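Can you give me the bound-state structure? Components:
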Amino acid sequence: MTSSPSPTISAPALEMRGITKRYPGVIANDRIDLTVRPGEIHALLGENGAGKSTLMNILYGLTRPDEGEILLDGEPITIKGPSDAIARGISMVHQHFMLVPVLNVADNILLGAETMANRVFLDRDEARRRIRELGQRFGFDIDPDETVGRLSVGWQQRVEILKALYREARILVLDEPTAVLTPQETKEIFAVLRRLAAEGHSIIFISHKLSEVLEIADRITVIRRGRVVGERLPADTNEEDLAELMVGREVQLVADRGESHPADVLLSVESLAVGDDRGREVVHGISFEVRAGEIFGIAGVAGNGQDELVEAITGLRRPAAGRVRLGADDVTMADPRQAHEHGISFVPADRHRFGMVTSFSLADNLVLTDYYAPPYARRGVRDDAAIAARAEEAIREFDIRTPSATVTAGTLSGGNQQKMVVAREFDRDLRLLVLDQPTRGLDVGSVEFIHRQTVRKRDAGTAVLLVSAELDEVLELSDRIGVMYRGKMVAILDGPTASREHVGLLMATGGHETPEGAPQGAAAPEPRRTGA
Amino acid sequence: MRVDLRTPLARARSLIALPAGAILLAFIVGAVVMLVSSPLVTGHFDPSLPLRTYAAIVEGSLLSVNALVDTVVAATPLILVGLAVGLGFKAGLFNIGGQGQFLMGAVASAAAGAALAHESPIVAITLSVLAGVLAGAAYGFIPGLLKAYTGAHEVVTTIMLNYVGIQVISYLITGPLRAQGASFARSPDVQNAELPAFLNVGTGHEAHIGILVILVVVPAISWLLYRSTTGFEIRTVGANPDAARYAGMQPRRLVILSLTVGGMLAGLAGAIEILGVSGYMPAAYATNVGFDAITVALLGRATPGGIFFSGLLLGALRAGAPLMQVKAGVPVQMIDLLQGIILFFLTADVIVRFVFRVRAGHAKLDELQTVTRSYGSGTGKP
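Here's the bound-state model for the whole set.
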């Protein structure tokens, strides 16, 4: 463990000492110590459920600790609630933005911190002036009159940061700030954070992405199961070391995928056009092929038509034009049941919406797509014994951590819920496996597991179509990579040789424009779908 | 919030916590109302009135064979229509049309019974019951079809169809179905289609064979919901329509099916009431069973077993009401009040949870979501 990491020790801006928080049956925070110095970017690293959020909720006054104390500039304080935290200069930028899309930037920033001209009216001019000034100081000029809903996700995040600065925050907590950003946007936000730190602001950066933490942090505190398990300086550590600290065992970060041995073309998509819920065409004549025994990854910023494309292939959405073929079968107009029976398995992006019924038992969820067929049912009558046996098998083989097969699926952790979906969709007689954001929001251990299973299916001769907004995931797993931009497939590249920068640029620009957000400003080149 | 569900006992306790708490609170509030209004009933403040009232209800509903028969006869339609509403809840639908489906079943069986009045009882009864079931089914099928293919909300369509039903019945009974020579507008006696009594314990207390239907229907609906694949589909559509579509189920078909089977059950209840209790259909059949059934279904958490018991409870209140009025001098409307307060506490479950310190989780009534979703939020097109 490193001690006194910096020779010039400044007095800590924030100290959390011995913070303990117990919930029935679990200790969410167990004597956690956290020290943040002025001008420091301090990363808080840990898996989902490690206790990061609890600790930050305590700091933000949303939860009271059972034990421990918080010191601000050496003074012990009690934080009674978020408004109290803000008044003391502690602000939080949530993963899901707390912005009103129909209001403009200035009004969003003023909400809750109104600058008044007199007792009745707001002083908008003064507010605009301060917003401009703050933006210039930290290197992002923003138009206070721009409607927030028209901003790109990256710029909305800057509005959130501005909101905190407007409230004169000295300690800024950012909860997974890069989860919704493209690589380019991430770089830009990092530049902003460095400027903030240089001006003396302290930043607590919550993440489970190892490379980013190493890039941005001055110091890294790792939390596992409610305890601080290590503190590191980026110079003294690496991704493997951090992952091991975080998970508590050695982790294989990059899936060992080996050579692929693609066979015949299995899925062929020809000039496929698909509309969204409002009937606007969002997939414009896409064509590509996936061979048996290969992983075809689709990279792209979320909302560029990937979801609609996948839903069209799996039968949830009727294509407007074009053809989808699976081997010799035309499955263009197949409904979900027909797609399933053709051997298409689908792990949907939104598991709570499509992939599971949270109020059903784990066992029922494991047969959600196969409930009607033998051995789980005969002549319309369910066979509970067969369903229970299947559940026991899946729990064992897919390492689903659960007290029993009868627990309500909604009470499982996100990682175990996804393992449940994966067990159901992987472990059957299938030809095409469609994965949409298969590891979103999951911890390192679950990600590793799902990646390994995916490669195993590929090696068994399954065609795999992988859609992910996580560029690293696409790069690690894919034998070939298609990049989607505004409903078109702008490039198809060889997976092992594709460079991160090249794919990132294609994702952001489609390969023929300048990166967005570069010019003086406020709005992105084109209003994109907003909201997380 | 996780709830300890490791033992079946803990699970059961958490499931009945809210209904039991709502009933208990309702009886307490009912007692307060009686205390406050006791000067109006007895002329002076009477602290023993609530106790005497509840004692009379218990006596009139449980403490004699007569009383028990009355309870079961009153509970039978409540349970059947309660199952119709409960089945809807399971499919994520709020079926307020139990009333109309019940009445259409009643008038159809009354018409068939009158037409077959002189056939052999077996033929007359079978066909009359069948007529009621089919009429109820048809009256549930209509809102199902509208919901599935136009997105018309079942709350709106079933309420409207209730009114349509009342008018249709009024026309039929005052017109083509009117009994000749009757002193008021009613259908002819069903005679041979009347359900025979298997236990006769005094005039007006016949235990007709119709109540035995409950012993078949409750397990049958339970089997449908929890043992059949169709029931799994119905429950999936109700819990998560998107997941149902993903799983290859057909939400439209299931919406129609749930409301049609519900209509069958309500129609069956109507047939049993006509053929077993009244023997004919008046132009203005006074009943509130379609709405009482909503309380029954919610109180029973939309499960067949729960509906069976909550139907018996409300049936007991109804059966005990006359004796309560005689012995305690409290008007029978007290029962409506109690029932209303039970429903109030079921929907305002926060109060019950606060008073009895019931934790959330499994204790919550999922069906309430269907109820509250039905108001305000637009269409629920599957």
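A couple of observations. The interface with chain B takes residues 24-25, 316, 335-338, 340, 346, 348, 353-360, 364, 368-369, 371-372, 377, 380-382, 403, 407-408, 411 of chain A (CB under 8 Å). Chain A is about 30% helix and 25% strand.
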